[in-house]
Write a structure and sequence with these properties.
The protein contains 11 helices and 8 strands. By secondary structure, the chain is α/β, with parallel strands linked by helices.
Length: 263
């Protein structure tokens, strides 16, 4: 295990939760590091959008690897990369891709089970086999289950069953986007002896303090920071092109500050 991977594991143990404001390119990664983030985590959706692709493993592997290499080059803190379902048709292919990331100096990955074409959660055995294939690479394996994003009535029971299967397969952490209920998060944290990752990429999400009190050890904002940044750009464009004003540019970083990120 590399020193950055060891640090990433340790940061999940507290005392405070690990808060991840997800990045999508080298510039956003450096801004987050400058702001004090002890870890840089990518968002698969945001990275895909920034490179001209829709989310859902539509970003070619080579482009993803090149983007990761650019981020890794400019940061000095651990990097964890969202690889969606693993970028491989088989567990062996998923492992090979993760090994390429490890060779770039990546400390952790986020891998998901996902939903099928019918909108329902896929067979957890598929994810379990991919998780097991990632063992031994020295990566922090954060596993996301999408059951709370599906129209099912027994989501909590299904998520708990999957979490136990994934931990047995080798997961180091469990990510449950869609579960914003503090009581539910607390129940899951008590039942699973691994760090629980909550999603907080929306206005009105529970505070860091409230999530910590529920036993959450990792908090992700996902693609929300990119959505907010693109939303601001859209407002700048509308204001300039349709209103002839430039007030939305208030608060922008100076050229010197931006160049200083990469000095």
């Amino acid at each position: 295990m590399t020193s950055s991977s060891t640090l990433l594991h340790r940061l999940h143990q507290g005392p405070a939760p690990l808060v991840l404001v997800n990045a999508w390119d080298a510039g956003s990664a450096r801004l987050l590091e400058q702001a004090g983030s002890p870890v840089i985590a990518t968002s698969s959706a945001a990275m895909a959008w920034s490179l001209g692709h829709a989310d859902g493993e539509r970003l070619p592997r080579a482009e993803l690897l090149a983007a990761v290499a650019r981020i890794r080059r400019v940061i000095s803190v651990p990097l964890t990369v969202d690889i969606e379902r693993g970028y491989g048709a088989t567990p062996a292919e998923v492992r090979a891709f993760a090994a390429e990331l490890a060779a770039l100096g990546v400390a952790g990955i986020n891998i998901e089970d996902g939903l099928g074409a019918d909108g329902l959660p896929v067979n957890p055995q598929v994810a379990s086999e991919r998780i097991a294939a990632l063992r031994g690479l020295g990566l922090f394996i954060n596993v996301r289950t999408d059951v709370f994003l599906a129209p099912i009535t027994d989501a909590f029971d299904d998520a708990l069953r999957r979490a136990r299967l994934y931990v047995e397969a080798g997961a180091d952490g469990i990510f449950v986007p869609g579960l914003g209920d503090l009581d539910g998060l607390a129940r899951l944290a008590r039942a699973i002896d691994k760090p629980i990752n909550a999603y907080a990429g929306y206005p009105g999400a529970p505070s860091v303090q409230a999530l910590a009190a529920a036993g959450v050890r990792r908090i992700s904002l996902g693609c929300a920071p990119a959505q907010a940044a693109y939303g601001l750009l859209g407002r700048i464009a509308v204001q300039a092109l349709q209103q002839g004003r430039f007030d939305e540019l208030a608060g922008m970083n100076s050229v010197e500050a931006m160049n200083g990120l990469f000095a």
